[in-house]
Amino acid sequence: MKGDIFQAIADPTRRAILVLIATQSMTPNALAEHFDTSRQAVSKHIKVLADCELLTQNKVGREIHYYFNPAKMKEFDHWLTQFKKHWEDRFNQLDQLLINLNSDSDEN
Amino acid sequence: MKGDIFQAIADPTRRAILVLIATQSMTPNALAEHFDTSRQAVSKHIKVLADCELLTQNKVGREIHYYFNPAKMKEFDHWLTQFKKHWEDRFNQLDQLLINLNSDSDEN
DNA sequence: TATATTTGCAACCATCAAGTTGCATATTTC
DNA sequence: GAAATATGCAACTTGATGGTTGCAAATATA
Q1: Cβ neighbours for B70, distance < 8 A, ≥ 6 positions apart
Q2: Which of A27, A82, A92, B26 is the 20 to 30 A CA-CA neighbour of A19?
Q3: Nucleotides of chain C touched by protein CB (<7 A)
Q4: Within this chain, do residues B54 and B94 fall inside the same structural domain, yes or no?
């Protein structure tokens, strides 16, 4: 499951990190100030997000700035879109069934 | 985390179950035939999905038919939509910044 | 009524995940 | 160069998770 975007987004802290970083790129230290957990714990979350490429990094001196990578978020979006299609296809099939039933009864 | 929709969707088997059930309502036994794991394992996944109301059930004799509940999927969709808004707001801020910079240089 | 089928629940096990602490490395500052 | 700062990595602990097996309850069938 390593690098799985669904797994990455499952954790509420990581979702909060994504929201923060999507608004503004941040360093691990700056991020950690927003949470009650230790810096290392936040760093681990960052690693998970970076492993599945939801975050990219840019080293500036001793600081590392993390940026949100919208491209990877598309994978997620894509699944949901496909899923909706499945669901809507089912509705369409039901619609078609109802239409057929109607036309059948018309023929009677 | 009990009943958390993100947690529920994180597991690939559960996503597969959702896709199957979104296409057609099914019983646990029928579902289990689609997977390599035991019936009880599938049943546990069903429980997780039902706990967060992604599935609803309808008992017919000794069988239980599980249905997909699209209403709950909206929560998921909603988060992604809000997230996109965050992201786009940032872009808008950048746009505004660029516009301001341009008008500044126009004034020089 | 006896048997088979469908299902859920509980106990148990192995693995994973999130958190902590400690430490090493690189860079900035004094 | 020494101290402070920013970060990552490794070891360890604890709790959650996914899997299995066994069993009980409800319903259908012989």
Answers
A1: A87, B22
A2: A82
A3: 5-10, 16-22, 26-28
A4: no
A80 and B77 Cβ atoms separated by less than 8 Å? yes
Same domain? For B81 and B55 the reply is: no
Statement to judge: residues A54 and A75 lie in one domain? no
Instruction: Give me the mean pLDDT over the B11-31 stretch.
Output: 96
Q: Which residue has the tokens 């994180």?
A: B10
| Strand C contacts in A 44-73 (CB under 7 A) | 44-45, 48, 61-62
CATH number at residue A37: 1.10.10.10
What's the CA–C1' distance between B75 and C9, in Å? 30
Q: Examine the domain organization and report whether A32 and A64 are in the same domain.
A: yes
Instruction: Tell me: do B36 and B14 sit in the same domain.
Output: yes
What are the backbone angles phi and psi of residue B38, rounded to the nearest 5°? -75, 165
For the CA atoms of B70, B8, B80, B82, the dihedral, rounded to the nearest 10 degrees, stands at: 90
pTM assigned to the model: 0.85
Contact A65, A25 (CB under 8 A): yes
Same domain for B79 and B33? no
B41: nearest nucleotide, CA–C1' criterion: D19
Range of the domain at B97: 71-108
The per-residue pLDDT for range B44-95, each reduced to its tens digit, is: 999 999 999 999 999 999 999 999 998 888 888 889 988 888 777 766 666 6
